[in-house]
Please model this.
Amino acid sequence: MRPKVTIPHGGGALAGEPAPPHDLHDLLRRHWGYDRFRPLQEQVIRAVLEGRDTLALLPTGAGKSLCYQLPALALGGLTIVVSPLIALMRDQVDHARRRGIPANAVMSGMAAFEIDNVLEDAALGLLRLLYVSPERLGTDAFRGRLPRMPVKLIAVDEAHCIAQWGYDFRPAYMRIPVLRETIPQAPIVALTATATPAVADDIQQRLGFRAPNLLRSPFHREELTFWCSRGEDKLARLRRITERVPGSGIVYMRDRRGTVEMASVLRNMGVAADAYHAGMAHADRLRVQRDWQEGRLRYVAATNAFGMGIDKGDVRAVVHLGPPPDLESYYQEAGRAGRDGAPSYAFLLLDDGDAPRLLQRVQDGYPTTAEVRRTYQAFADGHRIALGSGLHEAYALDLRDLAHRCGLRPTTVLGALKALELNGDLVLSEGVHTPSRALLICSPSTVHDLRLHDNRLGPLLEVMLRSYGGLFEAPASIEEERIAQLLATSTNAVRDGLRELQRMDVLRYAPRTDDPLVTLMTPRRDAMRLTLEPEALDLRLHGALERAKAMVAWSASTAGCREAGLLTYFGEPDPRPCGRCDRCRSLPTAEATLAVDGPDAELLRWVRSET
Ligand code: ADP
Ligand code: MG
Model:
């Protein structure tokens, strides 16, 4: 029999008991220290507490997490949160815990013993929040325990990932409806920042909403000025932006090399700047983000990897040196300016080569069947995955190395991996920094013997036990460097020792990782036996090209307001012209003459004269 567990936090009822009436504002104050809800949060939360399936469409930074975290407390039992952003999960777990919400996560990259520990806690009722990456939903470890979990709510973060023709379809999201079959009583709250009307419908349908229920905040951004500017010398225009727009900003580039070059261009302009992309070491990424957030850097030149999880209100300018692949990405990235509500700018700098380059790049991302097979073969061989093995295992992805071994370009290899993902063979996830972990699994007497009689492994165990408490109870994060220092030996010797102890079944050891991961969703197959759906790939390319064309058309448009164009794309009926963008400024309309003498008048006069 399992012990009965009571949870001191949260005040919710455990499984089976009726939930008490909730004072939402009281929970908000006590756990978050906030006085009031942001727009729409309370509406979403109330709908969820009434048991209604809800799709919430709120911009990035609007506070979507609260829309499931607060219900998790109020409802008691367990809330399962599905999210593809595994790089952020650990942070979210830490945040939730600091607010007194028992939380944990399971995702690719964790060792099986750790996943088992967390899932067992969830089944025992020890957790209020369980973050799960979508590919974990299909594993036996998860499915076996799900019926025992006291699930009260299913939250689907980044819900647009389930829309097949959306801009960020992730096939592993198709596993979410299975949750609903096993636990039909729990309502679903789905959250996303960007969805066209067709995508919003698709999300609700695929998640099996009992009744449609879409709550959306207006996309309109009073403080943000959209400005597209066309001309040959983009760098001269960038320089003027950094000179005339005070405050910090982001320059978005489309590839990693571009960010490094751009950071040095900015520094030559006298702007404190650095680069940020997903290929950088974890510590460097953290440093750049922190320096920028705390004002030591004014600009960051970044790929789209920069943005997830950053929380900086006073960004005054977001500059794109060329168009991103679709308006969804553009609106997300540009929207990072002006979160504090002060006047801010989204500049898109264009030249005549941009449109053909973009369409070509989209096309390049879609490899041939032969290239997909070659990529699969090289990947599996590189990791020595035997035929029929590897199911649900996560493998580090070194894209450059893999591309080199395939003799293909990295974009093509990435496209091939995405095709395999669409085909259901694997799941890609971004780089996650996971520290090394260890757990002792032998009896204390075995440890005692080793300490007495093994003059190599004994001292290693000694130091581990002194440095990390509770090693027998739960996996602890360890630092091989620190252990090496204490033992006056090399880090490699420590790693070897830990591996040896693992082989002796004394402990479990999961070394740290920092690379993007590929998780196999089918056992390794013969590359020639891969059945790839050509129609699915063609249709996906078709969708991507359509979105790219919409991006090009919007940026090249000479009719109508920029913001209104975006709002129409996202399904807002009859948007008004903003009166601030480059289009509105060039039109002799009443709206356009209104704001010319505002604080940004000088800037606007300048930009106008340039374009
Ligand atoms: P999203 O997921 O919508 O991008 P988050 O949930 O990450 O946004 O929240 C963004 C920030 O807003 C966080 O720092 C969060 O603590 C803060 N926040 C959320 N709700 C409120 C509120 N009601 N009052 C003040 N700050 C809030
Ligand atoms: Mg979020």
Remarks:
- The chain has four domains: 24-216, 224-352+563-610, 362-433+515-541, 437-510.
- The chain has a mean pLDDT of 87.
- Residues 64-65, 157 surround magnesium ion (ligand 2) (CB under 6 Å).
- Residues 362-433+515-541 form a domain with the Arc Repressor Mutant, subunit A fold (CATH 1.10.10.10).
